[in-house]
Design brief:
- With 165 residues, the protein is an alpha+beta fold.
- The chain has a single domain, classed as 2-Layer Sandwich (HIT family, subunit A).
- It contains five helices and five strands; from the N terminus they run H-H-E-E-E-H-E-E-H-H.
- Strands 1-2-3-5-4 form a five-stranded antiparallel sheet.
- A hairpin with a 3-residue loop joins strand 1 and strand 2.
- The termini are far apart.
Length: 165
């Protein structure tokens, strides 16, 4: 019996163009542009410190999926100064606390994909993922249908989390 497939066609453009649209070889980096953007719902930047910032993930795995980034364009943890390292991980902690307050999840995923071979979609600008999780939040849609169902918009996520910082 063949398996049915659910379409996630909205991701096609992202998958097909990720290398071109997020390249730093031509002097552009979407994360560097966001590093100097204001904290505002229109930019997706939720919070910022002197050396780090938090932004909505434009292609979330689930509701509340946020990215934490250093403002400076570096590829790896080893490239951060001690001050940047401390600020970055303090911002990760603040993000976890904000998401716990906003969503009341059962758990949390915190992680980084370092380098292209490590799975980083934008490997030349370090970023960490912080994602609230709930018991039973994995279902057949992702496992079998290869589709994610997000019950809220990015705008709603921004409004829920921004004031928690």
């Amino acid at each position: 019996m063949p398996l049915e497939r659910f379409s996630a066609a909205w991701r096609e453009n992202y998958v097909a163009n990720v290398a071109q649209s997020h390249s730093v070889d031509d002097g552009t980096c979407v994360f560097c542009a966001l590093a100097v953007a204001p904290v505002d719902e229109s930019t997706g930047v939720i919070a910022a410190s002197e050396l780090s910032f938090v932004v909505l993930n434009a292609f979330p795995y689930g509701s509340g999926h946020l990215l934490v980034l250093p403002k400076r364009h570096v590829a790896g943890i080893q490239d951060l100064s001690d001050a940047e390292y401390e600020d970055f991980f303090l911002m990760v902690r603040r993000t976890v606390l904000a998401l716990e307050s906003a969503y009341g999840p059962d758990g949390m995923n915190v992680g980084m994909n370092l380098g292209q071979a490590g799975g980083a979609g934008i490997p030349k600008h370090l970023h960490g993922h912080v994602l609230p999780r709930w018991l039973g939040d994995t279902n057949f849609m992702t496992t079998i249908g290869e589709t994610r169902v997000l019950p809220e918009s990015l705008e709603s996520t921004w409004r829920k989390v921004h004031d928690r910082f």
